[in-house]
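Now read these lines:
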Amino acid sequence: MNDENIEMETRNMNDKCDTNSHTEGVSSVLRDNIYGCDLMLCLFLTALQSYRVDTCLRPFPSRYIHDSHKDVDSLRNLCDKIPSLETISKYPRMCSVEILELLKWLLCQKDHLSLRKVNFNKVKVPTTIKKCYQPYYTYEVIYPSKTEEAWQKRRNDRNSFLAYHGSQLDNFYSILKVGLQHNLSGDKALLFGKGIYVTSEITISMSYAPFGLSWKNSMLGNKISIIAVCEVINNPEKVKCKAEKYTQRTIHGDIPDKYFVVTDSDMIRLKYLFVYKESTVAVIESWLVRNLMLVLICLYVFILFCIGFFQGPTWRKVQRYLYNELLSDVLT
């Protein structure tokens, strides 16, 4: 056996060991928490497909970074081949080494947070939520021990409260991995000052959390919306709000009611994620809202038509015709 054959055999053995290692790790986490893995993968793929991929996909898999260039196309091509997690949990060896390696990087790192599906009724929400606004799925954000200890140390003896934060679907991967940042506050930052905006009213957050296309093989549906329930450390110097008796906590008096502006990202973290599926009713309602002016114009034209029809000669002819038909039926 020459050196070239020995090198090839060694490489094949290493690849086989890598495959076994990746398969075991991915299979284990899927058996334990397939719904949490599904949502994490959904958020990763949504960020990957976003036109703002450079901003949304943080961190980016280092395997696909070459000379400081992110090979987005190769990563997208690979992800197009990922089967459903249910299929992978049953037949993990059907996946390539590259897919298993990516899934292990995304789902199996012990020092990273994870998501776990929980019962909505066990969640302490900031304010009572009407049944029509309750999520289809509820996830708790589970932090590694070091991150949890750092949060508790930062909190110290201060109280904390829960509040809602809405954002586009493609933002949530980086929000989970990097944390809420000021630069994701959008237009609100221009209106009310720099900071992370949260609210005590879920309907307010919903207007900032439109439905977005998710992963086609997801168990959660291919079009979802997410509202984050955030835990906020109640630090008057870094958490601003509108309240007459707390004038020192306002910013130029411009903050709307039920809003809080967190000026330090260390004072806030994600506690739960509320996931909503887009139903047929929701699609119709959403279309009506987006096209309200068109609907009103059509309704106005229809009313004018009805007025003209019932007051014009055509309606009298129809009445005479119906009367004659009814009379002939009675006589016969």
Q: What stands out?
A: Residues 114-278 form a domain with the Phosphoenolpyruvate Carboxykinase; domain 3 fold (CATH 3.90.228.10). Residues 1-17, 244-252 have pLDDT under 50 and may be disordered. The first strand starts at residue 65 and ends at 66. The two ends are 108 Å apart (CA to CA).
